[in-house]
Structure formats: C-alpha cells, structure tokens
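Supplementary Note 3. Input sequence used for the single-chain structure prediction.
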Amino acid sequence: MNHEFFMRRAINLALQVPKLPFGAIIVNREPGEIVAEGFNKSSLNPTFHGEMVAINHCAELHHPKDWSQFDLYTTAEPCSMCQSAIQWTGITHVYYGTSIPYLKENNWLQINIRASEVIAQTNFRKTIIVGGILEAECNMLFDNAPKSCFNA
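The predicted structure, written as discrete structure tokens, is reproduced below.
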C-alpha cells in the first residue's frame, strides 16, 4: 500500500473545505482502490465529519457486508465519534496525519479522547491505527485554516 498516495488524496479533499480541512478516503486494500471519499460537511450537520461522510458514501455505494478489507485514511486523527463509527463498521486499519494533541495545542475544539482509547475499549474488533502519515503536510492544513473557525 502506498500510504502517501492515499493520504495525498485525503489532503486534496480537505482542501475543498479550507476552514475545516478534514478529508478522508476508504480504500479496498487488496486491489488498492479508493471506494469512497468524504470531507467535512459539518455546516450541513454537525456529525458530518470527513470520516462519517466517507463511511456513509461507502455504505450507499457498495453496501458492504464485510468492511474488514477496507482501510481509512484521514487528515486528522479520528475524534471519538468517528472512531466509534469506524469500530462499528469493522474497518481494520486507520491511517491519519495530524494528531488530536496537535489540534488541541493549536486551539481546535476536540474531545479529549484519543482514537486508540476508543479502539482499546472495543473488545469485539481488532483495529490498527497509525499516525503521522504526511504529518507535516496535514498539520499545515490546520495551521493555515482561518483562526476564527476553531478557537475555543
């Protein structure tokens, strides 16, 4: 798997919403193809984070019964809501760029629960999470966002 290739696609999606640059894609691991995409649409609904939009697109387009062949790439570590949804789907691998601590340090509103904590509390799934994929590029997305959009 070319993690940088897939993360660059998530970054390109995030650029569509520079105020809230959360982009995500879902990849079918075996053929290495993107099956769904999403970017933050929380202006329509506060639960429409990039990961949630990608998950909903995947469900609508493919009606998968088994999500274990899918990987999710996202510009920022999934929040507790998004990681919980990922756990419910059964997606087995999550790759992210920017961490929740980085977002919090830079005044982004975040629930202080790491994705790894959600995974640890989900005893019916085995999920692998890897952070820091194109981290500097993802961090720049959030550093360059207009400050009025996220300050606590």
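The beta strands are 23-28, 33-39, 70-76, 93-98, 128-130. The mean pLDDT is 95.
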